[in-house]
Amino acid sequence: MLSSAEKELIVEIWTKMTPVAEEIGSEALLRMFTTFPKTKTYFSHLNISANSEHLRSHGKKIVEALAEGAKNISTLTTTLAPLSRFHAYQLRIHPTNFKLFNHCILVTLACRMGDDFTPVTHAAIDKFLSAFSAVLAEKFR
Length: 141
Hints:
Layout: H1 4-17, H2 21-35, H3 53-71, H4 76-90, H5 96-113, H6 119-137
Helix pairs in contact: 1-3, 1-6, 2-3, 2-5, 4-6, 5-6
């Protein structure tokens, strides 16, 4: 699905984004909650207002999981198996929400990366996020 060059690009991007994981993740989550309000349902027990500790903490976890997935892209299914089970069986997150978040993280990255967000970068990140979401959604029934 991803060429060797795309895999290297994905690792490079997420390595750069990890130091600002809280900002990237919370911005993407806030964008998702604003654009797709029904996604707030899964977070009703948390303070998900802008710059809240819960939003920043969860955003950081997401970006770190994406970075870990990028580093282990060849074994994505194995790497993400615990997250897949957790999201399917305990949280019961509907897979559609992963696609919605993918869109929001793409927009966030485009805003943050500026001219570095080339069409090649966009395509590679989109493929990676699709693969990541597919693995997360595997256990959902």
